[in-house]
Amino acid sequence: MGADARGTPGPAGSRAAARGRALHLGQPAAGGAVRGCRLPGTHQARLDPRHARPRPRVARSRRRGRAAEGRRPDFRHAVRPRRRPAPGLPRRLPRLARQPPAAERALRRQSVGPAHLRRSVARPEEEGRRPLRPATPRGAGRRVNRARQGGPPLTATHVEASERLRQVLDRLVAMSEDDYYNPYQLFQWPDSLPQEQYWMSPELMSTHGVRAADELTEQQLWAISKWESVNFYSLNVHGIRELLTEVISRIYTKGFEDTSEYFHHIIGEENEHMWFFATFCLKYGGKIYPDKGMTLADGEEGDAANFLVFSRLLIFEEIVDFFNKRMGVDERLHPTIRQVNAIHHQDESRHIAFGRQIVALLHERLRDTSTAADLLRLEGYLKRYLRTSLDSLCNPAVYRDAGLPDPYAFRRAVLADPARVELESQILKRTVGFLVSKGIFTDESIPAS
What we know:
The chain is mostly helical. It has 13 helices and no strands. The protein has a domain at 155-179 and 216-437: Ribonucleotide Reductase, subunit A (Orthogonal Bundle), CATH 1.10.620.
């Protein structure tokens, strides 16, 4: 029994009573189980042990002085209870689960290839997180390497140009992915094209406005337009073959680390272009005219050879795009002809944007390592290549296949006519203007035929 009817404490009651008296008087209770003190003020408070504040687990000590009694425990030495994993779960989570989110990892790492700025991943808004350190520009790292290798160091202008190139590559890669199409399913080739209509815009034909064409009949002009169309697409086949050869030989090589990823898009797109140009020539012309273009300059190597290669490719693409842009919207042409030119113009606009950036960057580096005589020699070669490219549009084999009696005499008359000179100036206006603005050409003069 804890107590009798009159409140006389028994064994258990005597301990409770003693504990209550100790708390009331502000004295330590027996056993030290519950400690109390007299609270401030005049009111005396009795503490119920059932409502006592739970004490944290503290390190045990064999020697505990009585001076510690009545104090609040020191939480600095508190020991957290060890959590046990739920049934069925491993004691230690795999490492992958403790990695940052994918969006944050994309910002931390350096992306592969030229797409350093390709995908701007939006970082989730997190409060209290320290911002990530921006990645070191690639150009800055290569400056040290080039100096260590004994080559000319990259200047601030070079780094800025390289950054512009990376930004252009970023956009072009995204556009190539968004505009991708399957040419093998896109084109529906009719069995034949009408012979009694133009296959090329009359304003773009070599006969436009020249006196030698005044005596030609409309049927002869239709025939010339057909074979000039086949010749134009044959030039595309040969130009693309050269482009593929040169780009493939440079992909993932020193100096082209940033551009190699976009090279994949160029290679894939140009391979498809060559296919539908060759298909047009073989299906509707029965042949591809042979290549009689200008070979690459011998003796050039290193940066000079790279500059000439990409300059040639840029010139070729800009001349071709002048025709594609206009024939792609000419309602006088057959829908198949319009489609071929429109599709090619869509892709070539990206290739031209890339070509201008890399040609300008390569020439800036050449100016630091080449003499004035070397730069003039390269300029002379590119101007001769421009002349050869324009003259290749006037193929005597075209006039022969169209039935003209003296194709070589007709070609000489076309090249010497002032109307032809005017058309050539329109074709080269943007290209020559760009080369002059970048200091690659010292003037706009082009050698005569």
